[in-house]
Amino acid sequence: MKTAILSDIHGNATALDAVLKDVDQQACDQIISLGDNIGYGPEPENVIHMLQARNIPSVTGNHELGATRPDFLLLFNPVARTSIEMTISMLSAASLAWIRRFPNVLIKDNLRFVHGFPPESPTKYLFEVSDAEIRQTMMQMKEFCCFIGHTHDLEMIVLDNDRLIRRPLLQGVYLLSPENKYIINAGSVGQPRDGNCQAKYVVWDSEKYELTLRFITYNIADTVKKIYKAGLPEQHALRIM
Asked: Of 24, 39, 41, 102, which alpha carbon lies 20 to 30 A from 17's?
């Protein structure tokens, strides 16, 4: 079973299109989104339609919460709040109803999928959590691996017996051990923040126990032009360049 895991698309339909074309070449059996499909980017409605067309399930991200819960929107910083308010105006009532139904967590094939941090937080950032809390969470986690997003930064955390190992992930293939437990941060399709502007996603092969990091080149200038045309905050364009 090969699973493609996408995270933090953030309304970047151009990046998503390039990623999905690459996924098609990897012979994946399923695709799962880790949330924040919307926000920041200029084409949230197109992104939703692309996910729906392929029946791609998604967990709830904090931007989905911001778009569907007025009380939660108040927790965002002013720039992000402006972006989400504009995103809401770009979404159809049907799309808002669809994202409102996202669960906080998906569990499939001995894998856990959550936007922020396990067991099911859409809002907790990995950098907010101490190593002691990470270790305790992983010890209690029944699944072999939990895939997360939210920080837009690729990372692997390994629990090897009682030893916690943290390391960044680079493009390529990693062989995982069935004796360990893992938290994998899948990075971001639409707005990477790891110093590399390519769209990122991961593929998990459960038969080979292989994790593959895919870095995809796409037309960034096209997305930047659409961000400016939509009148979204300039910061969102500068971040992806």
From this structure: 102
